[in-house]
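Possible regression after last week's pipeline update?

I re-ran a chain I had predicted before the update to compare outputs. Posting the input and the new output here so someone can diff against the archived version. Not blocking, just want to make sure nothing changed silently.
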Amino acid sequence: MDKKLKQSLKVAAVRREMIVVWLFNGDKIKGIAEVSADPERVKINTIEGPVWVPFVDVESISRVIRLRVEGEPNK
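New output (post-update):
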């Protein structure tokens, strides 16, 4: 796995961001990244429950970043 991908996954986990992970086998996993002590896998909380994905299986990721507009009421 690319070092930048691994770093991006770690940042998403620290910020508890929603991510979409594409695997080399063509599967896609969507959920919230979570910090873990495992150096070989990333933990993703999906609707079905937690999933542990080995870093070597990850082809690419997308992070969903929420933006707050100044002056807008919090929802």
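Follow-up from reviewer: compared with the archived run. Residues 3-14 form the longest helix (12 residues). Marking as no regression found.
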